[in-house]
Amino acid sequence: MAVLATEAPEESPFTELTGHLTPHHYGWAPHWEIGGIDLSPTNAVVNIWLAALLCVAIFWIAARKRALVPQGIQNVVEVLVDFVKVNIVYSVMNTKDGRNWFPFIGTVFFFIFFMNAVGLVPYIGFTPTANIFVTATMALMVYLLAVAIGMARNGPLKFWVKTLVPPDVPKVMLPLMIPIEIISQLARPLSLAVRLFANMLADHLMLLVFAGFIFLAAGSAAIFGILPISVAFMVIFTAFALFVAFIQAVIFAFLTTIYINDALHPGH
Q: Coil, strand or helix: which one is 243?
């Protein structure tokens, strides 16, 4: 995925904090360059790999010793899988479409959730979904996939006619309605990308603000009053950020389901 890569800043408490928001190269990462283009993995790319690895590892652990009465991590995974299946996929799609598309949408949910949450782990650093390039790439891929399957199932002409021409609209209104529908289609990947990016960035900004108070008060008597307050707020906002990470994964997966279902049944 395309990410903005910058060189690692100078070591200092504040550059360490802003490293949670700024894509940069790790010192230990290999340097890859092809045709003068720097392809070295940044913290965003590494954490995308980590999120994917966590998805595979957790499902492998949960499925390794399956029990009729699930316990531990198997129980947690099954609860989340059932949540995605019932409350996201089958709440939008019919049974046949839901059965076909649940594996993909479930994967999207868990991958987004782990990308959202991985930046909350101390020393991990960067949340990939706090980078607009990452969220825009995923949103565009989801939208183009929906368009592709819509055209494959309905035929290109029928798909676009049903998508851009609302049913039961008087013909005299079509010159107005068709441009509105085109704008609506263009706004789908944009809104999907910006919503996820903005929420994850705002969460980490709030955490960094409270962490910054500690460094600002360091070396002064005010540290004894600011430290417990800042730590308390950081704990509260970390729990809230984890909740937001879950909610944003739900929203992204839910909108993905809607876009695919609209493409499968345009005009409904």
A: helix
Helix (H, G, I), strand (E, B) or coil at 37: strand
What are the residues whose beta carbons fall under 8 Å from the beta carbon of 123, sequence distance 6 or more?
none
**Does 250 map to a domain?**
yes
- Environment class of 126 (CB within 10 Å of its CB; exposed 0-12, middle 13-18, buried 19+): buried
Reported as a single tens digit per residue, the pLDDT across 69-120 is 667 788 889 999 999 999 999 999 999 999 999 999 999 999 999 999 888 8
Tell me how far apart the alpha carbons of residues 61 and 265 are, in angstroms, rounded to a whole number.
Answer: 37
1, 45 contact by CB (below 8 A)? yes
What total number of domains does the chain contain? 1
pLDDT above 60: residue 10: no
Tokens of 179: 């441009």
Tens-digit pLDDT profile for residues 126-163: 788 988 989 999 999 999 999 999 999 999 999 998 88
- Report the 10 Å Cβ neighbour count for 30: 9
Residue 163's domain comprises 13-264
Residue 140 falls inside a structural domain: yes
Name the token pair of 208. Answer: 């960094």
* All residues at 6 or more sequence positions from 153 whose CB lies less than 8 Å from its CB, including other chains: 159, 263, 264
Average pLDDT, rounded, for the chain: 82
Helical H segments across the chain, by residue range: 13-18, 43-64, 72-83, 95-118, 132-154, 156-164, 174-217, 223-264
What is the spatial distance between Cα 25 and Cα 30, in angstroms, rounded to a whole number?
A: 9
Does residue 249 sit within a domain? Answer: yes
